[in-house]
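Hi, here's the filled form for the chain we discussed.

Project: internal
Contact: R.S.
Residues: 65
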Amino acid sequence: MSVKRYRVKGEVNKHSFFEPLTFDKVVAASREEQALEKVYADVGSRHRAKRHEITIHSVEEAAEE
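And the returned structure, exactly as it came back:
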């Protein structure tokens, strides 16, 4: 099983924010679904956001640097 790097872009919409908080995260995962789970868990815990407050705009495989 190979581990790939995924770039996930999205935003957090909460009532307490004046405007949506945008994010661009690179995570290591073996599948796209696992990358999404990591982003939901990380962003949700950092900003106390529920999953319905997090909107994912794109998920793409990141190029190796």
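Let me know if anything looks off before we file it.
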